[in-house]
Specification:
It contains ten helices and three strands. With 270 residues, it is mainly alpha-helical. It folds into two domains: 121 residues, no CATH class; 133 residues, no CATH class. It has a three-stranded antiparallel sheet with strand order 1-2-3, covered by helices on one side. A hairpin with a 3-residue loop joins β1 and β2. The longest helix has 33 residues. The protein is elongated.
């Protein structure tokens, strides 16, 4: 009992202080990686994610922060004389593009950097952002109808083509939601949606509901084109993140080819 009450030596006290600082830094870094993961999955480009995470690391006292982000993972190493070097990594699975959530995450990053929030406050704020509801399914259906019809008219389709394209767009949204419910590959989703869209467009023209298969299909194609992925890939390459940019660019091109194959396959059946 007497030995337990003995004062700690300076070396032991210093070691315990470093351990406490390291534990606290690990908590910070965990929440920072959570924010980075959500940013990447919501549609942020790599350069934005790396810059945001680096600023967040500096906000809790890191003297150096090395951030490596690619499409599938984030690796962050921070260093400070108070807690030494700490590294954490995060595997990124699946993309759920949500630009509204991305804007909220950007605001959270600015708040953390200005107010120096602790990991508990960061976690609470992130949970609040994740609980913000997305657009209802009815709104999403209306959006798909509007996009399909608008592009069909824009490229020279008739009013009948626009109506048919809008209806097919609504059907494709329902199919897309069903496929997402089983966590299927985005390439499988693109193939099935494009093939079904092409078949329905051909059948609509065959039964006299529309005038042109091409004008109907072009509205539905615009729903499936990976525009955000392609744009982000170019931005990543222009900002110096060549590897990440090329990976995203190849993925976007393969997805576009899958869409083309789906419509071509549908044309062969008609």
């Amino acid at each position: 009992m007497e030995m337990a009450n003995l004062p700690l030596s300076p070396e032991e006290a210093g070691r315990l202080a470093v351990m406490a600082e390291a534990e606290r830094a690990n908590e910070y870094l965990y929440e920072i990686l959570e924010i980075g993961q959500q940013m990447l999955q919501s549609g942020a480009e790599v350069s934005r994610v790396e810059d945001s995470l680096r600023r967040l690391c500096f906000s809790f006292g890191a003297e150096r922060a090395d951030v490596l982000t690619i499409t599938a993972s984030i690796v962050v190493t921070v260093y400070s004389h108070r807690f030494g070097a700490i590294t954490q990594t995060r595997r990124i699975e699946g993309m759920k593009y949500d630009l509204n959530r991305l804007e909220l995450l950007n605001q959270l990053c600015r708040l953390v950097c200005s107010e120096h929030l602790g990991p508990e406050d960061m976690h609470a704020a992130l949970e609040e952002i994740m609980s913000v509801p997305q657009y209802s399914f009815g709104v999403q259906l209306f959006t798909y109808v509007l996009i399909s019809s608008s592009f069909s008219l824009f490229f020279g389709g008739s009013a009948a083509d626009a109506v048919v394209s809008g209806v097919i767009g609504m059907i494709l949204k329902c199919l897309e939601r069903s496929i997402q419910g089983v966590n299927a590959s985005p390439f499988l989703s693109a193939m099935l949606c494009s093939c079904l869209g092409g078949l329905l467009a051909g059948l609509a023209v065959h039964f006299g509901l529309g005038d042109s298969v091409d004008m109907i299909s072009i509205g539905n194609i615009m729903l499936l084109i990976p525009g955000i992925a392609l744009t982000n890939s170019l931005r990543d390459m222009f900002s110096g993140n060549t590897i990440s940019g090329l990976m995203r660019f190849i993925e976007a091109i393969l997805l576009a080819l899958t869409i083309a194959c789906g419509f071509a396959l549908a044309a062969n059946f008609l």
